[in-house]
Amino acid sequence: MRWAAKQKKVVARIKWLTLGALVAAAIGYMYWDTEINPGSAQHTSSSGSGLEKTLIMGTDPGFKPFEYKNGQNVVGFDVDLVREIAKDTNRSLQIEEISFDGLLPALQAGRIDLIAAGMTVTPERAKNAAFSTTYYSAAQRVVVPKTGSTVESVDDLKGKRIGVQLGTTGDTLAHKITGASVVQLPATSNVMQELNARRIDAAIMDNGPATQYLATNPNLTMLARDLTKEDYAIAIKKGNTELLKQVNDSIKAMKKDGRYDALVKKHFGAAAP
Ligand code: ARG
């Protein structure tokens, strides 16, 4: 009799504990869903724009003219492009700054809706993300000091110290060069610093930013040859077919109605390659 009463008490206590745990889990999930994982829901915009939904773009500034800082703001071709996509799909735009090698993980984790970061479409990346139609053709170039460089042609890269931004196609490419010691740095600006200090012999990076850096670094130059030809596209989480279609439709519309050309002119001052 005493034992049965005790057991009843225990059962009641377990019931309360279970209920408590469920309530805590539900509250925790609600918090996670809205605060930590905003990409998971169609949430209201806090920008006061009156738009229903927010489009969260992940990017890594320091890649002029595609994305760079103007004071506190992230600006550039990619930003303007996605701003138009947000407009076309009736969303407000929110930008998250994430280091380049963290962009695809952030997309997969649902922290951002898309990546616009001068990101090259590669078969390897396409395994983990969906890519929009391409919006820009780029190339990898070799940047070297103007005087006294030990690298005068692409063949000279063998066995040299090559600086790259971590996780980029330039990084992958440098690793294929025989005997090269690849110096992986968090940002393209760090690569330029190392090259100016001559702690690396050459840098491999995208032609657009390379051209921009050369304009402000008179001691540096670029080898004539392109190492690769590659295409930039917007990355979207695999399975998010609705957003992928909207992005593609928007890019198509922009190419047709002149908005795309206007952006090229604004950021490159000339026609798209
Ligand atoms: N196109 C190269 C890649 O996809 C480099 C991109 C770097 N982009 C940036 N925003 N830092 O790997």
UniProtKB/TrEMBL annotation:
Top-level taxon of the source organism: Bacteria
UniProt xrefs under SUPFAM superfamilies: Periplasmic binding protein-like II
Record flagged with keyword rRNA processing: no
Any Pfam family: SBP_bac_3
Keyword set includes Lipid metabolism: no
Keyword set, alphabetical order: Membrane, Signal, Transmembrane, Transmembrane helix
InterPro entries in alphabetical order: Solute-binding_3/MltF_N
Ranges for domain Solute-binding protein family 3/N-terminal: 54-271
Transmembrane segment boundaries: 12-32
UniProt protein name: Basic amino acid ABC transporter substrate-binding protein
Protein's organism: Candidatus Southlakia epibionticum
